[in-house]
Amino acid sequence: MLVIRQAQLDTFQRRAEASFVERVTIELGTPPDFARHGIAVARGFRFTTESAITAFLKITWAGFGTIPAFPRPALAILCRHTHDTAGKLQDYSNWVEEALRPPPPDTEALDAEEEEEEEEEEEEEEENV
Q1: Nearest to 44 by CA among 72, 13, 71, 79
Q2: Tell me, what's the pLDDT at 106?
Q3: Nearest CA among 63, 124, 122, 116 for reference residue 89
Q4: How big is the chain by its Cα radius of gyration, in Å?
Q5: Which of 25, 70, 77 minimizes the C-alpha distance to 47?
Q6: Helix 32-44, helix 50-64: angle, nearest 10
Q7: Average pLDDT, integer, range 107-123
Q8: pTM of the prediction?
Q9: pLDDT band at 4 (very low <50, low <70, confident <90, very high)
Q10: Helix or strand or coil: residue 121?
Q11: 94: helix, coil or strand?
């Protein structure tokens, strides 16, 4: 019977982890430190498969370029206990997109600027007449 000792298992796990970090680093174009730290953070949010962890890191890297201090709305999504990993990642992706979207312009200020410009143009026309 084949018996695998704990030391052999630990060696295999270290090599597998190093290989995963390297693949993430290459696929996302991130520094290895981001990949290592991000993998640990993703596991803390109960992402367990390489594909889910990589998707989490891809969203985070594209949105922030680092592992941010997650605000409450993001934590509410990421700490959710669910078996629907794809749904959780989609909700996180939507949140990141919304969080990074610039606020809508202040239409009152824009209207006031346009009125000012029109008044200046009218004054210039009157002076030229």
Answers
A1: 79
A2: 64
A3: 63
A4: 25
A5: 77
A6: 120
A7: 71
A8: 0.76
A9: confident
A10: helix
A11: helix
In which residue are the tokens 């009152």 written? 108
Please state, in angstroms and rounded to a whole number, the distance separating the CA atoms of residues 30 and 57: 10
> What is the DSSP secondary-structure string of 6-54?
HHHHHHHHHHHHHHHHHHHHHHHT--HHHHHHHHHHHHHTT--SHHHHH
Structural contact between residues 11 and 4, judged by C-beta atoms closer than 8 angstroms? no
| 71 dihedral zone (left: phi>0; alpha: psi -120 to 50; beta) | beta
The pLDDT of residue 64 is above 70: yes
Q: What is the pLDDT of residue 107?
A: 64
**What tokens appear for 69 in the block?**
């201090």
CB-CB contact of 91 with 77 (8 Å)? yes
59 touches 89 (CB < 8 A): yes
Alpha-carbon distance values, 100 to 59, 87, 103 (Å): 12, 20, 9
What DSSP state is assigned to residue 79? Answer: T
Secondary-structure percent of the chain, ordered helix, strand, coil, rounded to 5:
75, 0, 25
Distance CA 5, CA 31 (A): 33
